[in-house]
Design goal:
The protein is α+β, with helices and mostly antiparallel strands. It folds into two domains: about 140 residues, no CATH class; about 160 residues, Heat Shock Protein 90 (2-Layer Sandwich). The chain is about 60% helix and about 10% strand. It contains eight helices and seven strands. It has a five-stranded mixed beta sheet with strand order 2-4-5-7-6, covered by helices on one side. α2 packs across α4 and α6 packs parallel to α7. It is rod-shaped and about 115 Å long. It starts with 15 loop residues before the first helix and ends in a 21-residue tail after the last strand.
Length: about 375
């Protein structure tokens, strides 16, 4: 396959309206400066020589009006040509030279239109040279301003695009993490129901109804970045109750009463992988009743969510699975260093997974997105 030639970086561009506004503001400043300078110098000339040396202000204004279309065209051509590669520099010099070389003739045309006279031919060369130098420097200053603004606008637009892409990538990453949880949960619960179809069909039918409710909440929660703490614990309760029906007397659950904290927001489905991990790994190798306990504590401006389960005595801790890694990554994406997560054995017969997150209590108009004034989570 033939190699494609790299496309050079295009020169920065501005819209027609922006270029017209910038060129107009710049040329108005130049016109006023030249008129005031000529007026002050003529006052001194009148005082010393009693003669008209500098052209009148109306001639100067008309000269600049005649030059403005040419200035605008040269600015537009300069932006289109760009400065890279170096072979474009002669084009830029040519544009400036063309504009400056016509400045004197615009002055003569203005004088002819106003007074019907022309400059003496013997003075044309010197006046043209002086006019060329002055207007070439003026043009150079103007094109530097226009080009600088164009580069600034391109840099700002690039930053906005990068910010949008980064936000989109973050949202997609969080959505992917949440979707990783849903199939895993469904797989385990379907196996639980399957085990009861033949032996206890009535219980299986009840579990199907509970599973439908769970899936409805799961679908709603997976589409939102945040949910209220009571809603999160309602989902946890549904999941644990389904597991209780499978394991009967082998599983006990303790959940906190947080109905008074309906204004407290937490990451959606953040507890689900922890309670699932507590059930699966708590029951593994454990013949006695496994107790799964969810705890909520409030400390200053932080909320501590803790899932504790009993484990077989002397059981060693293995590597973190998908669920724990997902929780850790989601907290890192959503809160950075403002959240913490730890999981491991506490004592000889308990396993604790604990996260600390900032207190979020204000919900924006977009469902499931939390605004905290002055914080990094504002939409």
């Amino acid at each position: 396959m033939p190699l494609k030639r790299a496309v050079p970086n295009p020169p920065p561009q501005v819209s027609f309206k922006v270029l017209l506004l910038l060129a107009s503001a710049f040329w108005l400043f130049v016109t006023l400066t030249n008129v005031l300078y000529g007026y002050s110098m003529q006052i001194n000339a009148d005082r010393m020589y009693k003669a008209l040396i500098f052209i009148n202000w109306d001639e100067r204004v008309l000269q600049h009006l005649l030059l403005f279309p040419l200035l605008f065209a040269c600015f537009a051509a300069s932006l289109r040509a760009g400065w890279a590669p170096l072979t474009r520099i002669p084009v830029q010099i040519l544009l400036g030279g063309m504009f400056a070389s016509l400045a004197y003739f615009a002055m003569e045309l203005a004088e002819f239109l106003l007074w019907g006279v022309l400059m003496p031919r013997e003075t044309v060369g010197a006046l043209w040279a002086a006019s060329f130098v002055m207007f070439f420097m003026t043009y150079s200053f103007g094109i530097v301003l226009i080009t600088g603004f164009a580069y600034y606008q391109r840099l700002r637009n690039a930053e906005v695009r990068n910010s949008t892409l980064e936000q989109g990538w973050t949202n997609a990453r969080l959505a992917a993490l949440r979707m990783q949880l849903s199939p895993h949960t469904l797989f385990n619960l379907l196996h639980t129901i399957r085990a009861h179809i033949n032996k206890e069909p009535q219980m299986a039918r009840t579990m199907v109804v509970q599973l439908a409710d769970l899936l409805r909440r799961l679908l709603s929660a997976s589409q939102r970045e945040f949910t209220t703490l009571p809603q999160e614990l309602t989902f946890v309760r549904l999941y644990l109750q389904l597991q209780q029906r499978r394991f009967a007397e082998r599983l006990g659950i303790v959940l906190p009463d947080v109905e008074n904290h309906s204004d407290l927001w937490v990451p959606s489905l953040i507890l689900q992988p922890l309670v699932e991990n507590a059930v699966v790994h708590g029951l593994a190798g454990h013949e006695a009743t496994v107790l799964v306990r969810v705890e909520v504590e409030f400390h200053n401006e932080s909320v501590i969510l803790r899932v504790v389960n009993t484990i077989a005595k002397g059981r060693s801790a293995g590597p973190d699975g998908i669920g724990l890694n997902n929780v850790r990554e989601r907290l890192n994406v959503q809160f950075g260093g403002d959240a913490s997560f730890a999981a491991g054995p506490t004592g000889t017969e308990e396993w604790t997974a604990e996260m600390t997150i900032p207190t979020l209590r204000e919900l924006s108009s977009r469902q499931g997105v939390v605004n905290v004034p002055g914080s990094r989570w504002m939409s």
